[in-house]
Write a structure and sequence with these properties.
alpha+beta; six-stranded antiparallel beta sheet; 2 domains; 18% strand; 259 residues
């Protein structure tokens, strides 16, 4: 669930990511595990002006695992201005099953397509926080560092806006972008379809528009194509949290390589 203009309420968060409000760790975790609920981190980030606008969690086969599974929450700060048609975000992931530390990524939320980007580690290196080391001063320092990255992201987006790709370069970009989701290639998806804008405002040959058009289709899906049996299919969105972040970051790295 994503909200464009208003943050998610506490009740909405509880419904979307119940695992973020766990009151104890999974029974599978050893006694050495230090439990810090994601809700505690969210409360501290709220004190620093960061509010949740998007939340999801990994599907669990067993209902008892739903309270401990990995979840992702995207937060924004009202004091941070827009970057063109996008809003800077912090992307938080965590779980209470002992498999993940708190991880923070830099992101952008593009208003026109309600789509979230995740910025590659080359621009802002992801931060992992061990549960046993967590405290408010640490999260405040990390968020201050995040704010210092915003001008760098603005500069990078401006560069992408200023670079034009000819038709051959666009095909090359889309072909490489396809490999971020399908490392072994995909014989049924048409590269030119990836480059076809969903909306009129995304038409153009600058790298920023091309990146957004391709990224939206690869992440959110919806692209209609014929499979090997000549049956009409629709590309599914990437739901898995880790894969969504991974493909997003690889797409950003690919785009930076054209700067």
């Amino acid at each position: 669930m994503t909200k464009n203009n208003t943050s998610l309420s506490n009740q909405e968060l509880r419904e979307l990511v119940p695992s973020a409000f766990a009151t104890t760790q999974s029974k599978r975790v050893s006694n050495k595990y230090t439990f810090i609920s994601t809700s505690t981190v969210l409360e501290d980030m709220n004190k620093l002006g960061w509010e949740p606008f998007n939340a999801s969690q990994r599907k669990s086969r067993k209902s008892q695992d739903a309270m401990f599974t990995k979840h992702m929450i995207r937060l924004r700060n009202g004091d941070v201005g827009k970057i063109g048609d996008s809003i800077p975000e912090v992307v938080l992931t965590n779980s209470h099953d002992g498999r993940n530390a708190f991880t923070l990524h830099a992101g952008l939320f593009r208003m026109v397509c309600s789509n979230g980007l995740v910025i590659a580690d080359t621009t802002f290196e992801q931060v992992k926080i061990k549960h046993q080391w967590y405290n408010f001063d640490e999260i405040r320092k990390i968020m201050d560092n995040m704010l210092e990255v915003v001008p760098k992201v603005i500069t990078q987006v401006n560069k992408l806006n200023s670079i034009s790709l000819n038709e051959e370069q666009q095909i090359d970009f889309a072909s490489k972008a396809l490999l971020t989701r399908y490392p072994k290639g995909n014989e049924v998806l048409n590269v030119e379809d990836l480059l076809s804008p969903v909306r009129q405002s995304d038409r153009g040959n600058d790298l920023w528009k091309i990146f957004n058009v391709v990224q939206e289709k690869l992440i959110k899906g919806g692209l209609v194509f014929n499979d090997k049996k000549e049956k009409m299919q629709k590309l599914r969105p990437i739901i898995n949290i880790d894969r969504r972040i991974d493909v997003n970051k690889k797409l950003w790295e690919l785009t930076e390589a054209y700067v």
